[in-house]
Specification:
Elements (H helix, E strand, L loop, with lengths): L1 H7 L1 H12 L10 H11 L2 E5 L1 H4 L5 H12 L4 H11 L6 H8 L18 E5 L2 E5 L5 E6 L1 E8 L3 E7 L10 E4 L10 E6 L2 H4 L12 E5 L4 H15 L7 H9 L15 H4 L5 H8 L3 H13 L3 E3 L5 E3 L1 H23 L4 H11 L5 H11 L2
Antiparallel strand pairs: 1-2, 1-9, 2-3, 3-4, 5-6, 6-7, 7-8, 8-9, 10-11
Helix pairs in contact: 2-13, 2-14, 5-6, 5-9, 12-13, 14-15, 14-16
């Protein structure tokens, strides 16, 4: 049980800290420009579109393995195909809006490169693109322009060129992904900042480019497929929310919770910043800020592989928060509050409630 808890409650601990330090709504820090410069250094190389590569038939088994670990052998083929399809779209902008509307009934993301670009090379502050024949489409120097949120779903770094003829390559909007952390890149480029910040409106609707290094090896292919599958299936949970997610997708079968085939880190309950961002529905950048505070205060360990684990000090606090959350949720549910509202309100109450009041409530739930 303690091992499962160490896997679940990092999300609770991070959420508590993010609320207490205001990280969810934190403005740009003085370090943002430096972080943006480091990002460009960390992604040097030439990239091609990710999904046409990793959805090749030769990699089918690499999709099935992680899906089987979460939804079971029978449901895995359908889940794998659904995941492949979700980001293999070929339309964006108005055509995608006409097809998907606001996305409430489902949508397919176009993750290709657009505007005649087949390969993009990042060389520090210089970014250039080439067409399928290798002819140069654009080449510009870029400087950091600020943080930008994509529809409130994720946050990244905006870069701008001073070249007047840049057209649809005036801005590059980079998410904080690198080959070393998530094995791929996610980004947008275009001519209008406001449009780049909208995910289901305007000329870039339902488009988010995903880049993969042209010289990536077989291990990187395997890693990026596993990451995409496990991330989008919310593998970490054993929680009501995750089970509900699978139910909504039509997969109500048993969880196969042994993640050991994907490395000791998963089996031991380590998580990554990207997992926490997905689990809490906050931006990766906000999680990174909170992670730094947690690490500085001795609540977590973070290895060179970016895997996060709780220290004993962090575990004790997280266990307390998790216990409060469960007790308060149960108490509100007993009062007749709908389960979803009870869970949401418990999150708001658990951080400020005194120990005396909490113990009184706990007593009521045990009667």
């Amino acid at each position: 049980m303690k091992n499962i808890m160490r896997k679940l409650i990092p999300f609770m601990l991070v959420f508590a800290l993010m609320l207490s330090c205001g990280a969810l709504g934190m403005a740009e820090s003085a370090d943002d420009a430096a972080e943006a410069a480091v990002l460009l250094e960390n992604i040097k190389g030439t990239y091609e579109p990710l999904f046409p590569i990793i959805t090749r038939p030769e990699y089918d088994q690499l999709w099935l393995d992680p899906c089987t670990a979460v939804v079971g052998e029978e449901a895995a083929p359908q889940m794998a195909e659904m995941l492949k399809t979700a980001c293999n779209g070929t339309i964006c902008g108005q055509e995608a809006i006409d097809a998907f509307g606001d996305g409430s009934n489902g949508a397919q993301f176009d993750c290709l490169f657009i505007n005649g670009v087949s390969a993009i090379t990042f060389s520090g502050s210089t970014i250039e693109g080439a067409d399928e024949s290798g002819n140069q489409v654009f080449s510009h120097e870029y400087t950091y322009a600020g943080k930008l949120s994509l529809g409130g779903m994720m946050e990244g770094y905006l870069y701008e060129t001073a070249d007047e003829n840049a057209g649809e390559f005036k801005y590059f909007y980079m998410m904080p992904d690198t080959p070393a952390t998530t094995f791929h890149l996610e980004f947008r480029y275009g001519s209008n900042v406001d449009d780049l910040a909208k995910y289901n409106e305007g000329p870039y609707a339902y488009w988010l480019a995903a880049g993969f290094q042209v010289d990536a090896d077989a291990d990187t292919v395997k890693n990026v497929i596993e990451l995409f599958c496990l991330e989008n299936m919310d593998y970490s949970a054993h929680s009501e929310g995750s089970l509900a997610q699978l139910k909504d997708l039509g997969f109500e079968g048993k969880w196969i919770a042994d993640m050991s085939p994907f490395g000791d880190a998963y089996a031991k309950g380590h998580v990554r910043s990207i997992d926490i961002a997905a689990g809490l529905h906050v931006t990766k950048a906000s999680v990174c800020i909170a992670m730094r505070k947690l690490r500085e205060n001795g609540y977590i360990n973070m290895g060179s592989d970016n895997l996060i684990s709780l220290t004993d000090k962090g575990y004790a606090i997280a266990r307390k928060i998790y216990d409060r959350h469960r007790t308060l949720t149960k108490y509100l549910s007993q009062l007749g509050v709908p389960d979803e509202i009870a869970r949401a309100d418990a999150c708001k109450i658990e951080h400020d409630l005194s120990d005396e009041s909490f113990e009184a409530i706990r007593g009521q739930t045990r009667q």
